[in-house]
Amino acid sequence: MKIIVLAGGEGKRMWPINTDKCLIPFLGKSLLYHNLKKINARLPGVEFIIVASPQTKDGVEKVAEELKLDYKIVIQNEPSGMADAILSAKHLIAGEILIVNAEDILDASVFQNNYEGDVMLTGIKVDKYFPGGYIKVEGESVKGIVEKPGEGNEPSDMVKLVADYFKDGQKLIGYLEKAKSERDDIYEVALSQMISDGINIRLARYEGVWIPLKYPWHILDITAYFLSKLEQQISPAAKLSEKAIIEGNVVIEEGVKVFEGACIKGPCHIGKNCIVGNNSMIRESNLEEGCVTGFSSDITRSYIGANSWFHTNYIGDSVLEGDFGAGSGAVLANLRLDNQTIKVGEEKLDSEREKLGLIAGQGVRVGVNASTMPGVRVGGNSLIGPGVVLRKDLKEKRKITIKEESYQEQDYESAATTYDQFRDKLKH
Amino acid sequence: MKIIVLAGGEGKRMWPINTDKCLIPFLGKSLLYHNLKKINARLPGVEFIIVASPQTKDGVEKVAEELKLDYKIVIQNEPSGMADAILSAKHLIAGEILIVNAEDILDASVFQNNYEGDVMLTGIKVDKYFPGGYIKVEGESVKGIVEKPGEGNEPSDMVKLVADYFKDGQKLIGYLEKAKSERDDIYEVALSQMISDGINIRLARYEGVWIPLKYPWHILDITAYFLSKLEQQISPAAKLSEKAIIEGNVVIEEGVKVFEGACIKGPCHIGKNCIVGNNSMIRESNLEEGCVTGFSSDITRSYIGANSWFHTNYIGDSVLEGDFGAGSGAVLANLRLDNQTIKVGEEKLDSEREKLGLIAGQGVRVGVNASTMPGVRVGGNSLIGPGVVLRKDLKEKRKITIKEESYQEQDYESAATTYDQFRDKLKH
Amino acid sequence: MKIIVLAGGEGKRMWPINTDKCLIPFLGKSLLYHNLKKINARLPGVEFIIVASPQTKDGVEKVAEELKLDYKIVIQNEPSGMADAILSAKHLIAGEILIVNAEDILDASVFQNNYEGDVMLTGIKVDKYFPGGYIKVEGESVKGIVEKPGEGNEPSDMVKLVADYFKDGQKLIGYLEKAKSERDDIYEVALSQMISDGINIRLARYEGVWIPLKYPWHILDITAYFLSKLEQQISPAAKLSEKAIIEGNVVIEEGVKVFEGACIKGPCHIGKNCIVGNNSMIRESNLEEGCVTGFSSDITRSYIGANSWFHTNYIGDSVLEGDFGAGSGAVLANLRLDNQTIKVGEEKLDSEREKLGLIAGQGVRVGVNASTMPGVRVGGNSLIGPGVVLRKDLKEKRKITIKEESYQEQDYESAATTYDQFRDKLKH
């Protein structure tokens, strides 16, 4: 069997995260690495045909080499839908194929050992409306696919996942080449034609984990997923103070230093060469390599990209792509005071999260005593000046500061108190 | 003997604290509870006639039931002075009566086992002017009462407390019904008439503790009083980390959790189900039930009403009615830099305290990195936005934020440094 | 031999530090004390002639008495150059003299046991331009002195230190009285004349430590120098919590208290009666006596003058003259986000330091949650209001605050959440 891995899709909705979705690292390895490793273990000996974009090609290749896969890479020059991606690889397709997404999180059980019939699609039952493809079901047969039907118009409670089996890959190619659509749904049109032509499409009902990655805050869901799989493992090449506290399922990589009074409560992953400073507290978070959390930092349920640094900050439920820096006293607020879910951007996109902090692209800097409001997004290499309260999104390479005119200067007859008076006051 | 408890007075000067004075909880029980329990223990078997307001009725009844008192409750519909309060209960008054305030803190010794004579009032010697009633004294006899004589016009250094004994309660009723005054001093006029009629009023000189509750910062004095009575007592149903520090007379109620690195220095009361987070420090404070002090909070000499929550805050000498919430980095300043006592409100009311933080009604929220200046008052359900420096009082249901125009945005040519450079800088 | 100590120079470039340079204390003793003690140990039995200013006289006398020196003090009424300073002492000069600066840090080895020849000057090799006097060298002979030649015009790589030996002090007096110059270089003119007259001036090449004190940030270099000499020494009259961490070469003087969770990482000097509060961290810093670091303060590589107090602050690479006070959450930033060295003042004076915090005169106060930018200078007795971000220098006795107009107030329909909802959110 050949596995067609779709790894070239664009991620407009991921702004300000620029890293291609499947290459975002978790626990030190990219999402693609984790997913291909899982398939390769479940279906040993398969061949991978990976459809990459020009941007993802190098990263994809590195992953395939590291996993020692039997693989070929195909480049899709423009991201223009699933059908186009599959057609990019048509010269390599022959016999049985299984089409999968590079970035969706699914349990290994979704990949079956014995596929039967000509076509088998996979559905998952949902509790509430999801903006994807729904499956028209009759018994165990698929009778149609409806893309984004809109809430209330769903043909069933079954959403189609991308784990599509075809006994004859070339037959699919034929259907794709004939299918026509104005919309971005040529693949679904081709499937409908198959059904019209009497081809039996079987439904596999999947009941495991499914975490799609559409918006940047989904990175927090994926982080939580990977953290939930951890067991405690501390590198012998890490230096931990005896006065630090490590509790629960914490993975600490080589070269890490943890100083006195620091507290790491699992599940947590602390990447290579990270420094966890005195009195810092890290909970339920993933730190990629080379991060420094200075004195008394507090990092909770966050994704922290490589080489980020902190000093006495509160970082809650935040997604920081990497090379992030925060001055002392900067706070990334994560909780609205009115009990509503966090809405993102001018379009008030509902994150459906009650807690969401900052979402920052690569290289963002936050000045001392600055604050960012829940769900704010900041483009790469931007600067939030000291003392600023940032309430709205900021584009790439922008700098926001407090105007000098906000201050007034006057003479000051300091009622200089003696030391002893102050000391008395300060004593307790 | 019947004890007439005045528990219906209004508390205009207590703004923004809305809870009726006698129902404010300390150590998990209302002031009324503490006071009636003390009287009941000192004078077992007495009957209580409690004059409540429509607002306090339920709370008063609950206290009386809990203490299993022999009691009756009378409702005074409008708060209109002490004489009116007593007259509300005239149908229940017969024989010996002792009139007391529901909220004043006095030692049990003020309630005597054997009262003698027809009338006995209680006075306390004061060092400086107090805006209350002064007693004209001759030997051990009261020769008159002067309400708020003004500084320099005091007839003596004896202020009249409310612990007034009358052998014949109905005789007092008669005098009250005949007394007339334009001012709020009918009770004192009635006493003067008694004296004119030759009734001998004896003076009991009291030398113990006396803490009146007129202004909200007096809650801090009462807190200190109750804390001074504590002995260490830790509920077996509390969970204390072995890496937490508990020192001195600390009472920890059931359901409390204290995390690693937290430090509680007595005297302190930590109410039911409170959570004291990592590295938090609590000193000389009363926390009512259900409070959460997140990471690295610092609470000193404060009254913290139920269900308040904190996260990396400094809370000094503050009175927070309850359901208070503070974002990370918010600071309630408590000390003027010019060594003066803290003045409160536009009228510059002198609190006579060198340290006084925020006084907040129920449900106040303070945003991340916001600051409040010493002695500021904030009405219930108001919001102090992130980064705001609040220098003046805020009414109920108000929101104060920084104007967007205070910021400027520009292009930013980030001199993005490499990770290694930063890492070198940050290493020590 | 007589040692002429120049201790009356002015220090315009030291603003906002007002303490005369040689009287600035390090490790509890003034710079003059350290320097004279070193000379006295190296050259026992010499006589000191100290040229003081009217301002330094008392301090100088105290030092000389404490060291039990054989000394005389001469007052130079106006600070007008080295020649004038020496001439102030001409009535005391006879025989061999050695002229030294009161404040430069030099190893003892610079003072030689056996001076030879008529005149011996001392030079140090420099790697890059220094704005001082350069020596024209031929073999081991001095052929001239060039004051501040400008970069690229240096006659050699040898900068002249002030450690000048004259076999016949009165001969120098004679030359000084005859020398004339419009500029502040009469001393150098006199030396040139000596050379012209055929007097052989020998050169001593010095290779040890040399730290001049010209700008206030040099105080940090001198602090590092003194700290580097420390060995761990903890006064038996200090009280250290068993839960505090003391690491490395830390000197703790008598009367010091160190509370639970505090961490002092050497080299550090903690002066008499200092209080190091709970969870505070102090690294590579000198605290003069009577300082108080409240809860969770973080002091790094800084000079902290006597009687300063802190409460949850970050103090990095800062020079605080003394009696400094900072409210909770105030941050003295020390690092530019663009990797440049810190420039100081409107004239953008390059400190050549990548990290430099605040430079504050005596009695400066910083409000809660205020921030100061790297390299800012603040004159004595000034106040930086709460929440202010100070980007530029502030003169003496000035007060800078946020304008009230920066805020807006509105009605607030608080979506008051119930306690249980919040509690659920806050639990982890």
Automatic annotation (TrEMBL), chains A, B, C:
It comes from the Bacteria. In the N-terminal section; belongs to the N-acetylglucosamine-1-phosphate uridyltransferase family. Pathway: Nucleotide-sugar biosynthesis; UDP-N-acetyl-alpha-D-glucosamine biosynthesis; UDP-N-acetyl-alpha-D-glucosamine from N-acetyl-alpha-D-glucosamine 1-phosphate: step 1/1; Nucleotide-sugar biosynthesis; UDP-N-acetyl-alpha-D-glucosamine biosynthesis; N-acetyl-alpha-D-glucosamine 1-phosphate from alpha-D-glucosamine 6-phosphate (route II): step 2/2. Keywords: Acyltransferase, Multifunctional enzyme, Nucleotidyltransferase, Transferase. One of its GO terms (molecular function) is glucosamine-1-phosphate N-acetyltransferase activity. It catalyses: N-acetyl-alpha-D-glucosamine 1-phosphate + UTP + H(+) = UDP-N-acetyl-alpha-D-glucosamine + diphosphate; alpha-D-glucosamine 1-phosphate + acetyl-CoA = N-acetyl-alpha-D-glucosamine 1-phosphate + CoA + H(+). This is Bifunctional protein GlmU. InterPro entries: GlmU-like (IPR050065), Hexapep (IPR001451), NTP_transferase_dom (IPR005835), Nucleotide-diphossugar_trans (IPR029044), Trimer_LpxA-like_sf (IPR011004).
